Amino acid sequence: MSTPVSAPVAAKTPRPASLEESVVQTESRPGPVYAVVGLVVLLGLAWLARTLATDVPLWLADTPLHGVAAAVEYPVYAIALGLLGNLVLSLAGVRDKLATAFRTELFIKLGLVLLGATINFATIAKAGGPGILQAVLLITLVFAFTWWLGGRLGVDDKLRALLSSAVSICGVSAAISAAGAVQAKKEQLAYAASLVILFALPSIFVLPTLADALNLSPAVAGAWIGGNIDTTAAVTASAAIAGDDVLQVAAIVKSSQNVLIGVVAFLLTAYFAFKVERTEGAAAPSASELWTRFPKFVLGSSPPRSSRRST
Question: What distance in Å separates the CA atoms of residue 159 and residue 269, rounded to the nearest whole number?
Fold first, then answer.
């Protein structure tokens, strides 16, 4: 008697996608046109923020609001227009299609590189050495305190690593590098990044105000802002509000901290591979596995998209 083909075996055969499904899947992927449109929108909002910062004080020159308008710098307009633009694009249902052009972290870091080309070498010579020393001490102390406090509160080791890296170095970028090093869950990375942004946004306005109220010099104010605000974007915005001299020093201090991401990522990779995971019964990792886990974008290259999704 012949044996009939079982249903489970037949079910394993994948059903070919219909023409309609293929069209829908193709249309769901944003094309290059959307990337160009998104870039135009981004540049338009940036131009509008700069224009408003220049023209609003002129428009209100003969009104009681002139003093307030003159005190509002372009980062404030940029934040307001960014939030408003995000809301409008989301309500219009096109934000996800245009989001391929919204590489704000990349643009900000490119801006910092260009800013570095305009900084006077005397400023670098004066602030560079102390800035690096300050970065090493601050990262060491803040990381150690956050790690200790997280342990006292019973926080998971991987989440402790993300939070410690984020608050001691440069916010979201440091959290991403730590997540790759310790193999953290996506939820843990999202939680750490949300906390960083939650505290960074008010700091943009609070720290320049306090620096002015305390009559801090540009060098001290720049070191304070660059060393204590977590994200690079928030440091740039806050220091720009405080003034160009403050921005130069803050950029040097923050860049000195950013350089140390690779060191912290390497130490976290080794610590979790040889200490934490061995304690849990895992086998010793090979050199190739350590290299796979190490977040290679800290060396200057971007991680592949698949790595970003799995982090």
Answer: 14
Q: Which residues contact 268 (CB under 8 A, 6 or more apart)?
A: 161, 165, 178, 181, 182
**261-271 vs 172-182: helix axis angle to the nearest 10?**
30
Secondary structure of 236-276 as H, E, C letters? HHHHHHHCHHHHHHHHHHHHHHHHCHHHHHHHHHHHHHHHH
Task: Tell which residue, 79, 75, 73, 81, has the closest CA to residue 56.
Answer: 73
Structure token pair of residue 69: 């308008």
Give pairs for 276-285: CB < 8 Å, separation 24+. Answer: 276/157, 276/182
Q: What is the average pLDDT value for the chain, to the nearest integer?
A: 74
Question: How is residue 152 written in tokens?
Answer: 């006292």
| Percent share of the chain, pLDDT over 70 | 66
Residue 139 near residue 174 (C-beta atoms within 8 A): no
Distance (Å, whole) CA 302 – CA 294: 12
Task: For Cα atoms 27, 28, 30, give the angle at the middle one, nearest 5 degrees.
Answer: 85
**DSSP state, residue 280:** T
Distance linking the first and last C-alpha atoms of the chain: 53
pLDDT digits (tens, 9 = 90+) for 251-272: 888 877 777 777 888 888 888 8
Give the chain's largest Cα–Cα span: 100
Q: What is the pLDDT at residue 149?
A: 92
- H helix runs in 93-185, sequence order: 95-98, 104-118, 121-152, 157-168, 172-182
More confident position, 128 or 200: 200
DSSP run (H or E) holding 74? helix 74-92
pTM for the model = 0.57
